């Protein structure tokens, strides 16, 4: 029911599961998560806490509790729960990425960077952590580090143009003309036929910053 978007019906069934089996931690967890989706955060917190109380060694229960605390701006408590998630499941990358996001929001940039790098170490394919790392490094003027992290994320060929937007310009700004040209071609190959006017404008501007071949010029500015 939840996957079909019928949240009210899903919540009703999870409530019935809890009523029928009041020691069923998974039911409390799913009820809490569903209530979070309904923005009923106080009640969501109660049920997520109950799941943790019943089964304190299940990492995902701590992770869900952390999200609810995050939604309530109880950031220190959220970090503590994300850390417990990572302690219980030390091979999982997402708790560290989430800690990085919270710390970044709190202005603790140095520790946020360390957490993103830990997430990337655990999961080299975690493009999300790499993009978050770019957002932290760039304002600090650590542009080459940001470019390297961004390039690694783009190796996974994210489908959204937002993930690519600005990378070509950054390469050119840093004097990496060859990398700019490679990315220009990648942009045209992936988004050259877009019908989205915003994406089309971005691709055209990024593609015309240096002279290009007649074919690519025609694709960029038909």
What does this molecule look like?
- With 222 residues, the chain is mainly alpha-helical.
- It has 13 helices and no strands.
- The protein has helices at residues 7-20, 25-37, 41-54, 59-71, 75-88, 94-106, 109-122, 127-137, 143-154, 167-173, 177-191, 197-207, 214-220.
- The longest helix has 15 residues, at 177-191.
Which structural traits does this protein have?
elongated, 13 helices, single chain, mainly alpha, 222 residues
**Unreliable spans:** none
Describe the global form: elongated
| Mean of residue pLDDT values | 92
Instruction: Please state the structural category.
Output: mainly alpha
What is the share of helical residues? Answer: over 70%
How far apart the termini lie comes to: 48 Å
C-alpha-based Rg, rounded: 22 Å
Number of helices: 13
Order of helices and strands: HHHHHHHHHHHHH
Q: How big a fraction of the residues is strand?
A: under 5%
Number of strands: 0
Largest sheet, if any?
none
């Amino acid at each position: 029911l939840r996957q079909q978007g019928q949240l009210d019906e899903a919540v009703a069934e999870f409530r019935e599961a809890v009523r029928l089996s009041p020691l069923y931690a998974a039911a409390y967890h799913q009820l809490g998560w569903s209530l979070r989706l309904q923005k009923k955060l106080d009640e969501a917190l109660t049920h997520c806490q109950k799941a943790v109380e019943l089964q304190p060694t299940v990492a995902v229960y701590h992770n869900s509790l952390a999200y609810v605390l995050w939604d309530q701006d109880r950031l220190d408590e959220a970090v503590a729960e994300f850390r417990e998630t990572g302690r219980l499941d030390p091979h999982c990358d997402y708790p560290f990425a989430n800690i990085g996001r919270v710390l970044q929001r709190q202005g603790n940039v140095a520790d946020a960077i360390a957490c993103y790098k830990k997430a990337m170490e655990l999961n080299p394919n975690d493009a999300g952590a790499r993009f978050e790392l770019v957002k932290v490094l760039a304002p600090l003027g650590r542009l080459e580090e940001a470019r390297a992290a961004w390039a690694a994320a783009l190796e996974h060929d994210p489908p959204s143009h937002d993930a690519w937007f600005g990378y070509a310009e950054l390469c050119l700004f840093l004097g990496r003309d060859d990398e700019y040209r490679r990315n220009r071609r990648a942009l045209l190959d992936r988004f050259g036929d877009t019908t989205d006017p915003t994406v089309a404008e971005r691709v055209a501007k990024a593609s015309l910053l240096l002279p290009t071949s007649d074919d690519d010029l025609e694709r960029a500015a038909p």
